[in-house]
Amino acid sequence: MTKKPVTTKAPAEQVVKDIRRATRKLHSSEEKIRIVLSGLRGDDSIAELCRKEGIAQSLYYSWSKEFLEAGKKRLAGDTARQAT
Question: Is 3 part of any domain?
């Protein structure tokens, strides 16, 4: 009876995930605010803005929702200060 060779390589899907994770762009909060505000201005369509910035439309809409929710909480005075 012959044994199958044991491979130590990760499956192709794992390799692709690792590459995507390593090359993912991290946006600073200033960049997110700039992108959301330019979308709210309405100079360009959201699709065009997202293409220019290299982000998915769903990511833009989640940033926009977070931005507006944070503003609403701040205006309502629901901010909790951290004790130092």
Answer: no
Confirm if 46 and 57 have CB atoms less than 8 A apart. Answer: yes
pLDDT per residue over 4-37, tens digit each? 665 556 688 888 888 888 887 889 999 999 999 9
In the prediction, which pLDDT does 8 show? Answer: 56
Per the listing, tokens 């192709």 go with 12
Residue 56 lies in a domain: yes
Q: pTM of the predicted model, to two decimals?
A: 0.66
The domain tally of the chain equals: 1
If phi > 0 it is left, if psi is from -120 to 50 it is alpha, else beta; for residue 83 that is beta
For residue 82, being part of any structural domain is answered with: no
